Amino acid sequence: MRLAFNDDGSVQVRTGKVELGQGILTALAQIAADELGVAAEQVQVLAADTLHGPDEGVTSGSLSVQDAGAALRQACVQARASGAFRPPASAADVPRTCGQSLPRADLPAKLAGRPSYIHDLAPQGLLHGRVLHPPRLDSRLVDADTSVVSGMPGLIGAWRDGQLLGVLCDRSASADRAIGLVGGTARWRSTTPWSDERDALDRLQQLASTARVVDERGTRPGSGVARTLKARYHKPWIAHASIAPSCALAQWDAGRLHVWSHSQGIFNLRRDLALAFAVPPEAVRVQHVQGAGCYGHNGADDVAFDAAWLARKAQGRPVRVLWSRADEFTRAPLGPAMVVELEADLDDRNQLLHWRHQLWSTGHSQRPGRSAAPALLGSWQTEQAFEPTPAINMPLSVGGGAERNAIPGYDFAGHQVLGHHVTAPLPRSSALRSLGAFANVFAAECFVDEIALAVGDDPLAWRRRHLGHDPRALAVLELAAARAGWPTRPRVEGVGAGLAVARYKGTGAWCAVVAEVEAGTSLRVRRLTITVDVGLAINPDGVRAQIEGGAIQATSWALKESVRFDADGIVSDAWERYPILRFSEVPAVDVHLVPSDAPSLGAGEASLGPTAAAIGNALFDALELRVRELPLTPQCIVAAIDGASA
C-alpha cells in the first residue's frame, strides 16, 4: 500500500485492489481517514495501475477489506509514527468513519449516467477491433476468407493468425459488420468427441481424475456403527452472464504496451501479456477501469490480449475491442459443475461417529499470472501458440478451489474430505463467485437436515449441539432463526422454511440464512433472513449490499441457472435466453449484521452457499421431498418425485 500526502492536507492512496462494484475504494478511504485523523473527503483512493500501485494480487476471495484494509491501516500507522504525516490540529474533532455507512464514492457518476466504465473510454485516434475465437478450445480453423471485406468503408484491415480472425475499423458498427462477414466464411474442425449436452453434467465421476485426501480427523470406526446415511448432490455448469460484455483498450508505442482493463488482477495480466508478446513486464502497463462487474474470472483478461494483438496492426493508435454477448457466453470460462457425495455413520444413540465428504470437479482457477505460460485465450490460438494452461485448484491455505468449505465446520468425532480433480478437455472452467463453496455448503447443509430428520431432531437444535466450539457461528445461527421466527412459524400448505449456516472458507465471515419458499407450479423464494458476522463492518451499507447481492445471485443459481451445450459441445444458450432470476422473482431480503470490533472480514461471497442450502431445505419442508440436483427447476423436482416413487 502506498501513500502520498499533499500540501493541502489531502491524502492519496495507491492500492492494488480494484473496484468491481463492491465499494472497496470507499471502504479503504474510510480506513485511511480514521488512521490518519482526517475527513474521508480528504482521502482519494486511486484506481489500480501497475505503473504506480503495489502488487496486491487478485481482487477476489472476499479478501480486499480483510487483507488490503489491514495493510492500509499499518501503512497509515507507520506514516504517523515516522513523521511522514502529521495529522491536523483538528484531528481530535474529526469523527471516525469506520462502522458508518458513508455514501459510495463511485456511485454518483454511475447513477447520473456519466462516463464511468471502460466501455466509455474514447481516446483520440481510437480504432475499433473485433476478434473471432474458435467455437471450442480444440477447434481448428480449416478455412476463412478475409477478402470478403476488402474495400469496405472504414476498414483498416482484416487478418488471420493461426486460429484467430481479427478486423480493425474506424467505427464500432463497421467492426461488428466486418467480423460478421469474415466469420461467415470460417469453417472449423474439432477433435474432441462429444456425445450430447449431458456429457458435461453426468460424466464427472467417470472422467479421468486424481484423488487426494483434503483433510482428515480421526478414523472411521470399525465397530459401533448402527447405520450409515448417504446422499449425492450436484451443481451444474454456470455462466457469468454479465450485463455488459468484456472490453479492453490497448496501445503500442515504441515497443511498450499500455492496456486499459477491468481485470481483477492487473499485475497478473501484465505478466501474461509480457509473456505472450515477448516483452519485459516493465514494458507493459495495465491500468484498471471499471467494468460491469464479474463475480469471478470472465473474459476481461482475454479481451485485453485481443486488444493488444490487434493494436500491433494499428501503427501506434489505440484500439478498443469489445466482445459480443455471444463471445462472452461461449468463450469466457464457466463455473465448474460439481458432484458431492456425503456419508455419515451413526451409532445406536443417533450420535454422529464419522462424516465423509467426497467431491468431483474440474479446477476452479485458470486465471493469468499463475503458470509458466500465459492463461489468455488468444495466446493459445495464434500461429505461434502457447499450450493452454490447465485449470487448477488453489491450495486451501489461500482459500482453495473445488475443496473450499468442504471441511466441516461442525464438531464431529471424525471426518474425511476426499477431493477428485477431474481432467476434462471441455468446457473451459475457472473461478466463479465462491468457487467450490457454493456446492459444498449446499450439499453439507442439506445433508445436515437429512441427518436431523433421520434422528427425529429439529434442524436448528441439531446444529446447536454441534456448534458449541464456534460461538460466532452459533450466534449468527441463533439470530437468523430468531429474526425469522423459526420456533413459532405457522404451518401453511406448500410453504416451507429452511436454514443453513457456514463460515466462508473456514476463515472468513460467518453467515446464517433462513429461507421461506412457496412451492406451486414452480418454486418461489418469498423471503431470506440473513445474519452475518464480518467483524468490524467498515461500511455497514456496503456489507449489506454485498450480502444481499450474493444471496440474490445464489437464489438465481439455486432456482434457474444451468449452462446447456449443443450437439458439438458448444454453449447453446444465447445471453437473452439464459435463465436468470427476474426482478419480479427477487425475494425480500433482510440482512442483519452482528455488531463487532473484531478484525474486519470480507463479505462478498459469504452468503451464497448458505442461501442455496436454506432454499433446498425449505423446499423439503414445503413438499417433504428432497431435491439434490441444482437448479431446483420444476423438471428437477418432478424427476426427484419420480425417483422417490420408483
How would you portray this structure in words?
It is a single chain. With 646 residues, the protein is of the alpha+beta class. The protein has helices spanning 24-36, 64-82, 107-111, 172-183, 199-202, 266-277, 300-311, 325-331, 437-454, 459-465, 471-484, 540-559, 608-623, 634-645; strands spanning 2-5, 11-14, 43-46, 127-132, 140-143, 155-161, 164-169, 187-189, 209-217, 227-235, 247-253, 256-261, 284-288, 319-322, 338-346, 352-361, 415-422, 495-503, 510-519, 523-533, 588-593. The strands form five sheets. A seven-stranded mixed beta sheet has the order 6-7-4-14-11-12-13, sandwiched between helices. α6 runs parallel beside α7 (300-311), α9 runs parallel beside α13 (608-623) and α12 (540-559) packs across α13. The radius of gyration is 26 Å and the shape is globular. The model has no long low-confidence stretch (mean pLDDT 94).
Question: What's the CATH H-level superfamily name of the largest domain?
Answer: Aldehyde oxidase/xanthine dehydrogenase, molybdopterin binding domain
Radius of gyration: 26 Å
Judged by helices, strands and strand pairing, the structural class is alpha+beta
- From the N-terminal CA to the C-terminal CA, the straight-line distance is 61 Å
Strand content: 15-25%
Which fold name corresponds to the CATH topology of the largest domain?
Answer: Aldehyde Oxidoreductase, domain 4
What is the total domain count?
3
Please estimate the helix content: 25-40%
Mean pLDDT: 94
Number of helices: 14
Main sheet attributes: strand count, strand direction, barrel closure: 7 strands, mixed
Largest sheet, spatial ordering of strands: 6-7-4-14-11-12-13
